[in-house]
Design goal:
271 residues, alpha+beta, Ubiquitin-like (UB roll), Alpha-Beta Plaits, five-stranded mixed beta sheet, three-stranded antiparallel beta sheet
Length: 271
């Protein structure tokens, strides 16, 4: 009985070792295949310019890597896209698509700067201006504001639409920052990118439609450092999230968009 028990145990060990080796080889093969897929290059065109990128890259990032600027307010590189601002609308094979949520594909033909697309983007930006209290001269974010910079880039003088927005509550209930909801464009950048040290969302969206607004977790916000508060302010494309005890410290001439228009750093990178 002992002899058969020992033989059975030895056979079990051999089978287990063999299975581990097969599993290891399979994982190695799959890893190699995944690496090949990730590094696979594709070709496509934007406004007639041939571009290349890795398969799986969204069109905003792919265009940027090829020195082409697609305007957007909600997109952040490295953060899952939401397509909420719609400013990155492009045309692919005659259909409007959001560039941040659409992956580039081999052979894709993209329109980015046609008069039709430019007019659509102008309408969206103008609508954002009239649906909030975006009074640039009095805003601390002036000169660093992406919405303002897009207005300049699109040569917007005055909105064609009437100003229609309700007065919303300014939330100053945390030590480091305050939220002016009258300027929020609901891009959700703060929700998607600002996390606590244990990965919890500090910001969230409450409500739906015209009642939607950004709220903050007061308990987590109490623990924010100056660096984290600054990141939240920098992440916001407008003047909705601002740091306390900091106001108006950037002199005119040193602000981000004082010297060059938005997107020019991308367009000049490959010149």
């Amino acid at each position: 009985m002992v002899f058969f028990k020992n033989i059975f145990s030895k056979t079990e060990i051999q089978e287990e070792t063999k299975n581990k080796e097969v599993s290891s080889d399979k994982m190695s093969h799959e890893s190699s295949n995944n690496s090949t897929v990730m590094s696979e290059k594709i070709k496509f065109t934007i406004d007639g310019k041939e571009c290349t990128t890795e398969k799986g890259t969204n069109i905003v990032d792919a265009a940027r890597a090829n020195g082409l600027y697609i305007p957007t307010l909600c997109h952040l590189e490295g953060v899952k896209p939401s397509g909420s601002c719609r400013i990155c609308n492009i045309k692919i094979n005659g259909r409007f698509m959001t560039a941040c949520t659409t992956e580039a594909a081999d052979g894709m033909v993209i329109e980015n700067n046609s008069p039709e697309i430019q007019e659509l983007r102008n309408i969206i930006v103008e609508t954002l201006f009239v649906s909030g209290n975006h009074y640039c001269p009095a805003c601390e974010k002036s000169g660093n504001c992406e919405l303002q910079a897009l207005g300049y880039r699109f040569k917007m003088l005055v909105p064609r639409f009437p100003f229609e927005f309700e007065e919303k509550v300014v939330d100053a209930g945390t030590p480091k920052i305050f939220i002016d909801r009258n300027r929020c464009v609901l891009c959700k950048r703060c929700v998607r990118s600002i996390k606590s040290k244990d990965g919890k969302n500090i910001f969230a969206v409450k409500g739906r439609g015209h009642t939607a607004c950004i709220i903050i977790d007061y308990e987590l916000a109490e623990k924010m450092t100056d660096e984290e508060a600054q990141k939240a302010m920098d992440t916001c494309p407008v003047g909705s999230i601002l740091r306390k005890e900091r106001g108006y410290i950037d002199p005119i001439g040193s602000r981000k968009y004082d010297k060059q228009p938005i997107g020019s750093e991308i367009e000049q990178a490959t010149v």
